Each structure stands twice: as C-alpha cells, then as structure tokens.
Amino acid sequence: MKSAVLTGLRQLRIREEPKPILRHPEDVLIRIDTVGVCGSDVHYYTTGRIGSQVVQYPYSVGHECAGTILEIGAKVKHLKIGDRVAVEPAMSCGSCDQCLQGRHHTCRKLRFLGCPGQADGSLKEYFLMPAECCFPIPNSMTLVQATLVEPLSIGIYAQRLAQIYSGAKIAILGAGPIGLSVLLAVRAETESCTNYVTDLIDARLEVAKKCGADWTGVPTRQDIVADILQREPLALDFVFECAGQQETIDQGIKLLKPGGTLLLIGIPEINRISFDIDTLRRREIKIQNVRRQNGCVKTAIDLIADGKINADQMVTHHFSMDETQKAFDLVADYRDGVVKALIHVAPQSMEQK
After folding, report:
1. What is the mean pLDDT of the chain?
2. Could you identify which of 16, 111, 232, 238 might form a hypothetical disulfide with 119, taking C-beta atoms 3.0 to 4.6 angstroms apart as the criterion?
3. Which domains, and CATH codes, for the chain?
C-alpha cells in the first residue's frame, strides 16, 4: 500500500508498505479516503518537532481523516463493513485518573495519530484503528465533511470550555481552520454573540465572512486592538488565540475586559511565550488552554448533518496522494489563499469531492 512519510525537513515521499492485518478483536481496518493537512502536520514537516515531540525519520503524519470500514474485529458491535466513518485521532486508555475524570484528551497513556512517540499517522491507503475511535456518518454527509469533523470538534470543545453566553463579545485571532472552526461552533451554539476575526491573509478573512464573522481586520495594516476597542469600549469577554504567535497573545490580553478569558488554541513553534503580567493581574484575566477535542466528535457530525454548520467553506484545495508534498508546501508557505487542503488518498474520493 502507499504511505506518505517525512524523510527530513521539508522532505516527504510516497513509499510502499505492507497492508496492515487485522488482529485485535476491537479494531477495524479502514480504507483511508481523505486526509486533511493540519498546522501541526506542517510543524513536523518544516521544523521536525513540536516542543518535546521530535520526529524520528522516516515518519508518517496525518490525523484529520475519514474512510470506509473494510474489516471489523470479532468484538466490534457498532460498526459494519462498508460504513463510512469520521475518525477520532486520540486513543485513550479509559482507566487512568484523567480518563476516569472525563478528561480522555489528557489521558496519561494517550496515543495520538501522527504524533512522534505515540502513533503512526493516517496518510496511507489502509489503517487500523480501535473501533471506539470510529464514528459512522449519515448518508447525507460526504467524506470531505467527515474529515473536517476533527478540526471542527476542537472548535466545539473550545466554545464549551469558554461557556460563552448570549450577548458576549468575542475575538478570534487567526482565521485558519481552527479559528474558523471556533467561529462556526460559536455561531451554531450561541445566540446574539458579536465576533471580531483577524488574520494576515485576506482570502482567509473572506472565508471568515462567509462563516459569519461580524468584523474582520488585518493586523499588519491596522491597529486591530484600537479598532476593536473603538467599537467595544468596555472590551471583550472572550478571546480565542488561534495563531500560536506572541503578537496575537499580546493583542488578546489587551482586548479583554476585567474578568475576561483568553483561550489558547494555536500551537507556537517556540517553547516559551510571555504575558503582560501587570495587565493579567489587574484585570484578573483567566487563561484557558485548549487541548484538542474532548468528546465533541459526535456533536460535530450532528451539527454538519443537521445543516447547522457548513464546514465545506473551509476547504480551498484538493490534492491526490501523489501530490502530498505539493499540498504540504502550499500550506507551509500560506500560498494561493489556502485555508484547508485535503489529500484524497483513495482515487474515488477525489471524484466525489
């Protein structure tokens, strides 16, 4: 079978690997149809690491994926051969203190697809997964939409952590797939919420407007803090930092009212960031880290299936398996107005996009 692997910094090749054999009774064999290129995949591609997680070459990446069930283990009851599924990339043990507290996403023994030292990535033709990580999608959903469930579920989890209330004022700093997922989740699950969205790329802000942004701004062309505070003199209730940059963290703190909440979702390429502690302390600003998604995959599927979220707006580029490096270069260099690039591993999924 074909598998995409990193072989060095900004080096990726398609190689042949043995097709996996189903052995565990609670696993399933999936034909991978589509894989989304995530910012974390690109971190591994361009820098070879995220914090303490360092790539050992050759290494396979990819975790935003959807596919079709080809084989099921003897103990699998909720799936059948032929089911199309969205995949939850986090595999938790279910028995540690974190899992027992309902925090499966911070499981002590967590294994995450495409994460060094944890599990292989899904950018390959066939893949084994625990059945509990596979969620059937209805006939009304496409495999492209099923692939978008992973980033969308992060946005839903962030919205739930914030506990946004009706009438809240929020900012989303960074209009990539995660920022847009937050925007879509907030719009779907919160009434009468005013939102401000920023990004460096005009094309992404155009997508944000289609997704329901009330106001957009480009930090390199304007003072977005002054412009937003002119409209909201009492400042904002929540800021979702989705860029992973020191500049956007600083902007977020300046935008928050006393008692406001800064939610950190973006992944910085550096190991340390800093905060204006004087402002944090005097305004009693809360900081909430957002770690992936926690029990939100089914909600994301339902919101798409019910038509409450149009996630297709995020997809801007499609590639075949053989064009994987081209897709990674496009996303890494922020070219051609890219928001979300999808790799169609199965040729038929390219025809059905």
Report:
1. 95
2. 111
3. 2-136+310-351 (3.90.180.10), 152-289 (3.40.50.720)
